[in-house]
């Protein structure tokens, strides 16, 4: 599906954060769009020209949600009875995974991606491992579930990187897949690779790869994946739980990060998701190899995972991006500010990240992690993605015009997103989705259909 359109090609932003080398807030920015790309970008235009669409508040590049499990959206608010752990939460997630079929998955993903669009997300990295039917058998189309995700993103008006996930074992020790996990597995790297080879890029979609974790992919298979996936973006859950680290040390005598390094899986095309429980040596390995890290603070705190060392990782050389993961909330502003605020909680100091760094994590760095390096900045030749954020809501009213970007990061929420343009096409106007009229009811219907 093409996202090209015949809509207005000029926008005038009251305030804008352009990203890239032009970081900082500018006022009166005239933005010309040519097809799905930015043409000219002119700063200091005092009033909106008659032929330009006015974007009030702060306009910024499209947000990239670099880590998503769309079906987890049906868990929101349903996992808080009793104390529980990550592992009891996982049991509930498996129960949900066992209920989905292609139609219900499509409806749920479509509504979830529409919620993302309303929150300013223009591109999502879908970490996809729900491949087969409830018994583990392949559908007639072996990529039926992946195709449904790609279609759902098109219908919601956003781009998608389908991170098709290799999942072979249930423990670091190599125990076989059981129960719902059988839906996730292809049996071998060769079988997985043959299936993924039939997936094709589209105007709004690109195909990446993922290793679920060192729990689900043994050492030898990690090395095979590194060879097979060369040239693709590769994501992997890394050290989300201390138990994972202990099991990896017991099995291989090293940390999960060291295992990935030995397998040849670290590098500029790889993103480590969570990266919560790392040693100094782990952080050095990630930084020295230019491996990106994706923090998902709302999920990490929802699951009591812990607080990762974002500043230390960035200082070591790892680009930082953000994801909403299990969708406890879908709000990239909350994810961005949580990176800073969590650092403050750990060491009782303020000022670890500048506003520009946090916005870059939510925009350009996320797009690069997902294989869209031509997105995430408002500059000639880049993809024409725009998000306008209200600066007159009860959360943002009274902002300092010189610090409008900080008002967005540290005060705004997804509810303040007003307009969203993806590849030059208006997807959200005045807070309403242009393609899916009633997103809240689409969510309610799709979630009710899954739980019954």
Comma- or semicolon-separated keywords:
single chain; Urease, subunit C, domain 1; eight-stranded parallel beta sheet; 15 helices; globular; disordered N terminus
Quick recap of the structure?
Helix content is 33%, strand content 21%. By secondary structure, the chain is an alpha/beta fold. Strand 10, helix 8 and strand 11 form a beta-alpha-beta unit.
Model description:
The strands form two sheets. The protein has an eight-stranded mixed sheet with strand order 3-2-1-4-13-14-15-16. The radius of gyration is 21 Å and the shape is globular. The protein is α/β, with parallel strands linked by helices and 452 residues long. The chain is 33% helix and 21% strand. It has two domains: 111 residues, Urease, subunit C, domain 1; 307 residues, Metal-dependent hydrolases (TIM Barrel, Alpha-Beta Barrel). The N terminus is likely disordered.
């Amino acid at each position: 599906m093409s996202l090209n359109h015949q809509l207005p090609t000029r926008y005038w932003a009251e305030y804008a954060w352009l990203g890239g080398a032009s970081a900082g807030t500018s006022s009166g920015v005239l933005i010309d769009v040519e097809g799905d790309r930015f043409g000219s970008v002119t700063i200091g235009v005092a009033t909106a020209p008659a032929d330009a669409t006015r974007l009030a508040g702060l306009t910024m590049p499209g947000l990239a949600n670099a880590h998503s499990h769309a079906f987890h959206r049906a868990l929101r608010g349903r996992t808080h009875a009793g104390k529980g752990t990550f592992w009891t939460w996982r049991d509930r997630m498996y129960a949900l995974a066992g209920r989905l079929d292609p139609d219900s998955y499509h409806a749920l993903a479509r509504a979830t991606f529409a919620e993302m669009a309303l929150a300013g997300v223009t591109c999502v990295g879908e970490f996809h491992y729900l491949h087969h039917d409830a018994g583990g058998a392949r559908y007639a189309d072996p990529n039926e579930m992946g195709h449904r995700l790609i279609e759902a993103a098109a219908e919601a008006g956003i781009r998608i990187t389908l991170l098709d996930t290799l999942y072979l074992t249930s423990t670091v020790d190599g125990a076989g897949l059981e129960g719902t996990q059988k839906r996730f597995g292809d049996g071998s790297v060769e079988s997985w690779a043959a299936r993924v080879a039939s997936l094709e890029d589209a105007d709004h979609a690109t195909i990446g790869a993922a290793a679920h974790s060192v729990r689900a992919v043994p050492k030898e298979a990690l090395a095979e994946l590194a060879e097979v996936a060369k040239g693709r973006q590769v994501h992997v859950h890394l050290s989300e739980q201390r138990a994972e680290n202990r099991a990896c040390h017991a099995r291989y005598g090293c940390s999960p990060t060291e295992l990935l390094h030995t397998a040849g899986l670290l590098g500029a095309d790889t993103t480590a998701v969570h990266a919560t429980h790392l040693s100094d040596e782990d952080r050095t390995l990630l930084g020295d190899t230019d491996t990106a890290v994706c923090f998902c603070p709302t999920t990490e705190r929802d699951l009591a995972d812990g607080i990762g060392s974002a500043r230390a990782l960035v200082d070591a050389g790892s680009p930082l991006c953000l994801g909403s993961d299990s969708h406890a909330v879908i709000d990239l502003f909350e994810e961005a500010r949580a990176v800073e605020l969590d650092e403050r909680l750990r060491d009782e100091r303020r000022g670890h990240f500048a506003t520009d760094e946090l916005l870059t994590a939510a925009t350009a760095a996320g797009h690069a992690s997902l294989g869209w390096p031509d997105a995430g900045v408002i500059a000639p030749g880049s993809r024409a993605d725009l998000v306008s954020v209200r600066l007159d809501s009860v959360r943002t009213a009274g902002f300092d015009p010189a610090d409008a970007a900080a008002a967005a990061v540290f005060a705004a929420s997804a509810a303040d997103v007003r307009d969203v343009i993806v590849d030059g096409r208006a997807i959200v106007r005045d807070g309403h989705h242009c393609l899916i009229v009633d997103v809240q009811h689409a969510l309610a219907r799709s979630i009710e259909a899954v739980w019954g």
